[in-house]
C-alpha cells in the first residue's frame, strides 16, 4: 500500500468516525433508549475493567524495569508514580460505579462522561511514556517501547470498544507522542517507523469502528428484544383498536363472500350500521362492481377496484378505492378475505378540478394557453383535411390597467368575466375563445373559406362584431364603465406557420391596432415583421449608444414676460453615425420598455448638473434654472432620491437651480411614495415641475398634496388658445389654480406673439416654445443668451 492510498484510507476512516459520532445522538430520538444504551455501554466497560487494570500495572512495571538502563531514574520513577496514581483513580471509579448503580438518564450520562475523563488521564500518562521513556540512541529499547505501546493500544481497543469515544481517545493519545517523537528524530528509519505507527493507528481506528458498531448493534438488538415481548402482548389490543378506529374502512368476509366483521369507518362510508352489515351476503349487493375484486382474494390473489359505487341500503353514491387480500390460517389455508376501503370522492372531485384548472382559466372558465395550443394543433389538422383557412385573433383590452388601479382587482375580475361572456356570444359553434392571461384573449376561427381574401373578410366580420360587443357599456357593481379593445388578426392554413409564429404575427398586428389609436382591428402584414426587425436592431444600437458617446443634450430656452431668460429645458438627442439624428419619440419609448432609460436618465442628470456647475461660474448664466425630464421607471426606483442628491452634491451645484419635470401618470400610480420622494429632494432645494398638466384625468384631487413648484401648461391647450374658447378656459383655470396654490406656471409650445400675449393677459408670465427658440446644442444656446 503506497502513502497516498494509506492517507486516503486514514481520511476515510476519520470521516466514518465523524459520521458515527454525530449519528449516535440521533439513534431514535428517545431519551429512555439512549439511557439504556449508555447504561449497557457502562456495564460492558466495567465488566472487563478489573482485568485491564491488572494488565496495565503489570505492563507499566515491565516497561519501567526494561527502560531503567537507558532512562534517568528521576524521569522513570516520576512516570511510574503517575501511572500508579492513574490506575488507582480508575480502580476507585470502577469500585464506586459497581457498588452504586444508577438508572436516571442524566446520572448515567454523567457517569459515562466521568469515565471518559479518567480514561483521558490514563491515556495521557501512557502517552507520555512515548516521549519520556524513548531512548535517543538505543534502537532495541526504542523498538521495545513501541511494541509495548502498540500492545497497550490493542488492549485499549478491547477494553474500551463499548465506548467509541473512550477507545479513540485512549489509542490516539497513547500513540500520538511516540509517533511525533519518531517524526522529529530526523532519522529516516525512525521517520518511516513513525509513518508505520500512524498507519497502525488508522487501522486500529477502523477496527474500533467495526467492533463498536457490532457492540452497538448487539446492545440495540438486546434492547429491542426486551421490548418485543411487551409489543407482542399489546399487539392484539392495538390491532383491535386500529381496526375499529382506522381512518379507512376495513371488513372481513368468508369464502362465501359473507361479511364477518367491519369497522366503524366502513359503516360510515356506506351510511349504514355495523349490525346490518355483518352477515350481509356480498353477492346480493345492488351494485355488483366490487364482486370480482373481492373474489380475487378468496382465490389467493390481490384485488383492486377504483370507481363509482352505489350502496345497497342507503343509495349513497361514492367513489371508492378498494384493495382486497387473502386471509389465511396458520397452515396457509384461505379462510376468506380482508378488504380496505377508502372514500375518495372528495379527492376525485379535487383531481377533476385540478385537471379542469390545468386547461381552463379559473376566473373566466375559458380555455387557457395550454388548451389553446392543443386547439390550434387540431385547427391546423382540420385545415389539412379540408383545405380551408383559419384565423387567429388576439384581443387586448384598452386601458384595463387603469380600471384595476382605480377601482380595484375585484371590479377588474368582474369586468374580465363579462368580457369572456361577450366574446363567447360573438363566435360560432366550434370556434375557440381562450384567455392568455391578464387582459389578453384569443379567438381561433376554423373552417373559413378556402380563398384567403374571403376568409379574411369572414374573420374581419367576426372581429368587428367583437369590437362592437366589447364597446357596449358594462355594469360593474355600482360602476358604469365603457371600454374598447384592440385586435390583431392573422390567417393560417395547412402549409405555413407554427403555433409560435402565428401567435407572434397576431401579437404584432394587435400592437399595430393599439398604435393606430385603439378600438381597431388590424391584419398581420409581412411588412410589420420588417418593422419589428428594425426595432430589434435599433434596440441593440441603443444599448451601445451611451458607451459610444452618441447622446447629446439640446437646450430650449425659457423666458419671462419681459423677454429675460429664466433657464432652459434639457432635451436628449441621439446623434447616430449612420441614421443621423434619431427622434426621442422613437427611442425613448424603446428605452422605457427595455430598462435602458435608467442609465440614460442618469447620464442626462449627470450631464445637466455638470453644465449647471459650468454656468454657475459665468456671470450671464449664473442664475439659470435647468429643467430635466425624469422617466416614470427612473422616478420609481427605490434609490432615486439618494441618487439625485449624490449627483447634486458631487457636482457642487445649487440644488435650487435644478428642476425635475414629472408627468401626472408617474405621480398618481403610488401617490404616497411619490410625495415621500419629492419631499426628500424638496428639502435640499430641488424644484419640481408638473409636465403636460391638464392632460390627465385625476390629478386635481392630488395636486394640493404634491410638493410642486411649477405647473407646465401642455402645448395642446396653447396651440389653439387664440381660436378655441375651451382651450382658453382650461388655460385660465390652470393659471388660477396654480396661483391659488402658490405655484408658478409656464406654458410650453408658444409659437406666436398672439399666444404669448393671451397667456400674459391671463396671468401666465413664463414661456417656452419656438417663438423664442427651438431646442439647440449648447454652443448655439449660449450664443443666444449672449445676444440677449
UniProtKB/TrEMBL annotation:
GO BP term (any one): cellular response to nitric oxide
Catalytic activity: 3',3'-c-di-GMP + H2O = 5'-phosphoguanylyl(3'->5')guanosine + H(+)
Keyword set, alphabetical order: Membrane, Transmembrane, Transmembrane helix
Domain PAC, chain residue ranges per copy: 303-356
InterPro entries referenced in this protein's UniProt entry, alphabetically: Biofilm_reg_signaling, EAL_dom, EAL_sf, GGDEF_dom, Nucleotide_cyclase, PAS, PAS-assoc_C, PAS-like_dom_sf
Domain GGDEF: 388-526
SUPFAM superfamilies on file: EAL domain-like (SSF141868), Nucleotide cyclase (SSF55073), PYP-like sensor domain (PAS domain) (SSF55785)
Keyword S-adenosyl-L-methionine: no
Presence of keyword Isomerase: no
Domain PAS: 235-279
Transmembrane segments annotated in the record for this chain: 45-66, 78-97, 117-137, 143-176, 188-209
A single GO molecular function term of this UniProt record: cyclic-guanylate-specific phosphodiesterase activity
Signal sequence residues: none
Protein's recorded name: Diguanylate cyclase/phosphodiesterase with PAS/PAC sensor(S)
Protein source organism: Candidatus Gallionella acididurans
Amino acid at each position: 500500500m503506497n502513502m497516498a492510498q494509506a492517507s486516503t484510507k486514514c481520511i476515510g476512516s476519520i470521516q466514518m468516525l465523524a459520521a458515527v459520532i454525530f449519528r449516535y445522538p440521533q439513534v431514535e430520538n428517545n431519551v429512555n433508549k439512549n439511557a439504556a444504551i449508555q447504561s449497557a455501554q457502562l456495564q460492558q466497560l466495567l465488566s472487563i475493567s478489573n482485568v485491564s487494570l491488572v494488565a496495565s500495572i503489570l505492563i507499566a512495571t515491565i516497561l519501567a524495569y526494561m527502560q531503567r538502563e537507558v532512562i534517568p531514574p528521576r524521569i522513570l520513577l516520576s512516570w511510574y508514580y503517575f501511572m500508579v496514581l492513574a490506575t488507582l483513580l480508575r480502580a476507585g471509579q470502577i469500585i464506586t460505579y459497581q457498588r452504586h448503580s444508577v438508572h436516571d438518564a442524566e446520572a448515567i450520562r454523567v457517569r459515562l462522561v466521568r469515565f471518559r475523563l479518567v480514561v483521558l488521564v490514563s491515556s495521557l500518562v501512557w502517552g507520555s511514556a512515548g516521549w519520556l521513556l524513548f531512548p535517543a540512541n538505543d534502537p532495541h529499547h526504542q523498538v521495545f517501547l513501541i511494541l509495548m505501546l502498540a500492545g497497550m493500544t490493542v488492549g485499549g481497543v478491547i477494553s474500551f470498544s463499548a465506548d467509541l469515544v473512550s477507545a479513540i481517545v485512549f489509542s490516539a493519545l497513547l500513540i500520538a507522542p511516540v509517533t511525533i517523537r519518531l517524526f522529529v528524530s530526523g532519522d529516516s528509519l525512525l521517520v518511516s517507523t513513525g509513518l508505520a505507527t500512524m498507519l497502525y493507528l488508522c487501522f486500529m481506528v477502523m477496527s474500533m469502528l467495526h467492533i463498536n458498531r457490532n457492540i452497538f448493534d448487539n446492545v440495540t438488538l438486546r434492547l429491542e428484544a426486551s421490548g418485543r415481548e411487551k409489543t407482542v402482548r399489546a399487539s392484539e389490543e392495538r390491532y383491535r383498536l386500529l381496526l375499529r378506529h382506522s381512518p379507512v374502512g376495513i371488513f372481513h368476509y368468508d369464502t362465501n363472500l359473507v361479511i364477518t366483521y367491519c369497522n366503524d369507518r366502513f359503516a360510515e362510508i356506506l351510511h349504514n350500521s355495523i349490525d346490518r352489515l355483518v352477515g350481509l351476503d356480498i353477492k346480493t349487493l345492488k351494485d355488483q362492481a366490487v364482486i370480482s375484486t373481492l373474489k380475487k382474494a378468496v382465490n389467493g390473489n390481490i384485488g383492486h377496484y377504483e370507481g363509482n359505487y352505489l350502496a345497497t341500503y342507503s343509495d349513497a353514491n361514492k367513489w371508492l378505492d378498494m384493495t382486497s387480500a387473502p386471509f389465511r390460517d396458520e397452515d396457509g389455508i384461505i379462510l376468506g378475505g380482508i378488504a380496505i376501503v377508502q372514500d375518495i370522492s372528495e379527492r376525485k372531485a379535487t383531481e377533476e378540478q385540478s385537471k379542469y384548472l390545468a386547461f381552463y382559466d379559473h376566473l373566466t372558465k375559458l380555455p387557457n394557453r395550454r388548451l389553446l395550443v392543443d386547439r390550434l394543433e387540431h385547427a391546423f389538422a382540420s385545415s389539412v383535411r379540408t383545405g380551408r383557412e383559419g384565423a387567429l385573433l388576439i384581443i387586448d383590452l384598452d386601458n384595463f390597467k387603469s380600471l384595476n388601479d382605480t377601482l380595484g382587482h375585484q371590479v377588474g375580475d368582474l369586468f374580465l368575466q363579462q368580457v369572456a361572456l361577450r366574446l363567447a356570444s360573438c363566435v360560432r359553434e366550434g370556434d375557440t375563445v381562450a384567455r392568455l392571461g391578464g387582459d389578453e384573449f384569443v379567438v381561433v376561427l376554423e373552417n373559413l373559406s378556402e380563398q384567403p381574401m374571403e376568409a379574411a373578410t369572414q374573420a374581419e366580420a367576426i372581429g368587428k362584431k367583437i369590437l362592437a360587443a366589447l364597446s357596449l357599456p358594462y355594469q360593474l357593481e355600482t360602476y358604469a364603465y365603457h371600454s374598447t379593445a384592440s385586435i390583431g388578426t392573422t390567417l393560417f392554413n395547412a402549409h405555413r406557420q407554427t403555433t409560435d409564429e402565428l401567435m407572434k404575427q397576431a401579437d404584432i398586428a394587435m400592437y399595430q391596432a393599439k398604435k393606430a389609436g385603439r378600438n381597431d382591428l388590424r391584419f398581420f402584414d409581412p411588412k410589420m415583421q420588417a418593422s419589428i426587425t428594425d426595432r430589434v436592431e435599433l434596440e441593440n444600437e441603443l444599448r451601445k449608444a451611451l458607451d459610444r458617446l452618441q447622446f447629446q443634450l439640446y437646450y430650449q430656452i425659457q423666458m419671462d414676460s419681459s423677454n429675460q431668460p429664466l433657464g432652459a429645458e434639457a432635451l436628449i438627442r441621439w446623434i447616430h453615425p449612420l441614421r443621423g439624428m434619431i427622434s426621442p419619440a422613437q427611442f425613448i419609448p424603446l428605452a422605457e420598455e427595455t430598462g435602458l432609460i435608467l442609465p440614460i436618465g442618469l447620464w442626462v442628470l449627470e450631464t445637466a448638473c455638470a453644465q449647471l456647475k459650468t454656468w454657475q461660474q459665468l456671470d450671464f448664466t449664473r442664475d439659470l434654472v435647468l429643467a430635466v425630464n425624469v422617466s416614470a421607471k427612473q422616478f420609481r426606483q427605490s434609490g432615486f432620491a439618494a441618487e439625485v442628491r449624490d449627483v447634486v452634491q458631487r457636482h457642487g451645484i445649487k440644488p435650487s437651480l435644478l428642476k425635475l419635470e414629472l408627468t401626472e401618470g408617474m405621480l398618481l400610480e403610488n401617490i404616497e411614495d411619490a410625495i415621500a420622494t419629492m419631499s426628500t429632494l424638496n428639502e435640499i432645494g430641488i424644484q419640481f415641475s408638473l409636465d403636460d398638466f391638464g392632460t390627465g384625468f385625476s390629478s386635481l384631487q392630488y395636486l394640493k398634496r404634491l410638493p410642486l413648484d411649477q405647473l407646465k401648461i401642455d402645448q395642446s391647450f396653447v396651440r389653439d388658445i387664440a381660436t378655441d374658447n375651451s382651450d382658453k378656459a382650461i388655460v385660465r383655470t390652470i393659471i388660477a389654480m396654480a396661483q391659488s396654490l402658490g405655484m408658478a406656471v409656464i406654458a410650453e409650445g408658444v409659437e406666436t406673439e398672439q399666444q404669448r400675449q393671451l397667456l400674459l393677459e391671463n396671468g401666465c408670465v413664463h414661456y417656452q416654445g419656438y417663438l423664442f427658440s427651438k431646442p439647440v446644442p449648447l454652443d448655439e444656446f449660449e450664443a443666444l443668451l449672449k445676444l440677449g
